[in-house]
Amino acid sequence: xxAIEMVGINKHFGNLQxxxxxxxxxxxxxxxxxxxxxxxxxxTLMRILYGLYRPDSGEILVNGQKTSILxxxxxxxxxxxxVTQHFTLVPTLTVAENVVLGYTHSQLVSxxxxxxxxxxxxxxxxxxxxxxxxxxxxxVGERQRVEILKALYRNAKVLIMDEPTAVLVPQEVDAxxxxxxxxxxxxxSVIFISHKLNEVMAVCDQITVLRDGxxxxxxxxxxxxxxxxxxxxxxxxxxxxxxxxxxKIGKPIYxxxxxxALSNQxxxxxxxxxxxxxxxEILGIAGVSGNGQSELTKxxxxxxxxxxxxxxxxxxxxxxxxxxxxxxxxxxxxxxDRHEGMIGDLTVAENxxxxxxxxxxxxxxxxxxxxxxxxxxxxxxxxxxASPTDALRKLSGGNIQKVVMARALSRNPKVVIASQPTxxxxxxxTEYIRKKLLEERNRGxxxxxxxxxxxxxxxxxxxxxxxxxxxxxxxxxxSEATAEKLGLLMAGTC
Amino acid sequence: xFKYKIVRASAPVWMRTLIPIVxxxxxFLITSIFVIIAGAxxxxxxxxxxxxxxxxxxxxxxxxxxxxxxxxxxIAVTFAFTAGYFNIGAxxxxxxGAIAAVWIGINFPQLPSIAIxxxxxxxxxxxxxxxxxxPALLKVYxxxxxxxxxxxxxxxxxxxxxxxxxxYWRNPQSGYPQSPDISAAAHFVxxxxxxxxxxxxxxxxxxxxxxxxxxxxxxxxLRMRASGANAAGARFAGINVSRTMLTAALxxxxxxxxxxxxxxxxxxxxxxxxLSSSYGYTGxxxxxxxxxxxxxxxxxxxxxxxxxxxxxxxxxxxGVPVYLGDIVQATLLLVTLGMLLLxxxxxxxx
Lengths: 494, 350
Hints:
Chain A is an alpha/beta fold. Helix content of chain A is 33%, strand content 27%. Chain A is built from 17 helices and 22 strands.
């Protein structure tokens, strides 16, 4: 009998089929990995199991019995716990308070009482945290332990862990694995969502691989290798991709040397990143999200100051330059997250003019007519479906991205930083943005393309690098790059 | 489970214009309860609140007199809020401006109006800026919440005013806690004979127009709106968000300082502790009611001026407490804030 069986699960969001007829079975007392690239449907499937989403069709069996899970409350009732990537703890409450929160049966809460209970639970499960400490004083790893304890305290027999290692430092990862292995011996079953092959091989018994919302296979760890898993994960029909005809790459123009930077949480996220961009080339940086792409984008667009290293363009030092200096130097900057980089409450025309306010200022006043006129031109050039005076927030994602591109590219930049330029866009908008990037390259600009979409990187790039845990892994010419090779690099093997 | 869900979406234009009107009607409905408790007829009360003050020239002008400082504090708050700086300290900045205006008005008795009034205006503005400086620097350089610091600065200046009136400026004969009078040349002229409407009203309207153009038509205004709406986006576009916010945080103090200066030169001619009847805080209500649009804020300020004039009339005519006016104002604010949510959310059927 299985602890959990998910049978024929389908789920769509708009036009996107996130889960396609998925069958997934979890045995009691095993650690079962859900492996797949970003957007493969892992998290969606688990959110269905935890009652956060409702499937379009399909059913869930807990211990062989059909169970209707309509909310996390139902899931907890059925003995399912989930530890998400973003923790759900209240920082100003103590560990004990967080653990019992929403799970007390009396109206009065005695601090002593709950601390004793939580202490007993923490000893029983071998998860060591001080119940009396406020959560805000805990490290990320400790907070994760509290989340696990919280689930176990609610009598979870099945624990879903959504990319638990993404936020941890290596020592914490080891400690996590140790306690997971101990817990399954006591009868707990764990679903371990990951895209890192080495981790999956280190702790899991069974591995189910998802790709494009479908199961590509379930294998025993003992019966597989990292190379096989990588193939299952990214292996695909590449016939649809139009390879670029041999293209002449120009002189070097943009030099990034030994860049180191910290994330918001103070973790070392970029570790000695170096590469050179040449005129008339697209350098694609492939990689699973969270491997330093955000920080690299922020450093190169002037939002984050690196701890060491340098960025030079045509001999000009841009390492510590402000966003406007970088723009003026001739870098077309686009944000990784278009909603963070643009201002929804302002109009399309105002957003387009934002980098050039000096140009539009006459006698201390903004030249509204010029702003609107230039916006009309850019709107026509980039086929944006909007009028200049529309509030930007009213536009679709694709049109907002076109506004982003229009602002960055209409200055004819020498270097273009394009970070996740087509994330979340429909096919039409995606094609259009890709075409624009190729036009930039053909014009002679050097384009840096950071993308989680391996197909995109393969289709557009002249050279391809992989970013993994803040390091650049091997820069290959596109002729030598295959999906399998890149998949292995992306998953942290070789 | 639920048949309806709330989605984030902007409301259609007709709804945006309807919101203040519905807010006002709803507030009157709610405050009717208090009017009834006070033992009066709600219709009679609102007739006295809204119609009576406007039915004679002298009381209609008095409404404008009451509105003058409110327009200025409302605009001051609008200026700061637009840039995402939540200045709750207009009250204190108003007193800073008043102190400077009084000091100049007392100490240069030989100067003619043409010289001393500009000095008082500039002095009042700068004093407001100076009083806004500490919270502004704390916010921009140390990220300390301005809501708390600007609010606390209000209490500090009230104690300073108290010291000035009870010691430095204390009248040795009468012993009243009030400063000496400013020179006659330092008075704002009355715009209409036999009324208290003074030049300060024109000054307030000028400020409305200037701030309107500043916010809507200048690069600084666009930078402020961008920083206020999405600081990350503004920073990405190359805007120096810290500097923009600092500018807004200082100018807001200056405008509030003008409100204090106007009350000195136009109404009181000396400093007293009760110079402002919470104009700094009521300015926040005016700014919110006016939707942070300078012209809307000016209208809202006049409306609040009407209610506070009206609360006197109601009190005299029906024998209810003057505080009913405060209740109307407070209810209006709460209802408007609630209604503003509708601007950004829509309820949809699942």
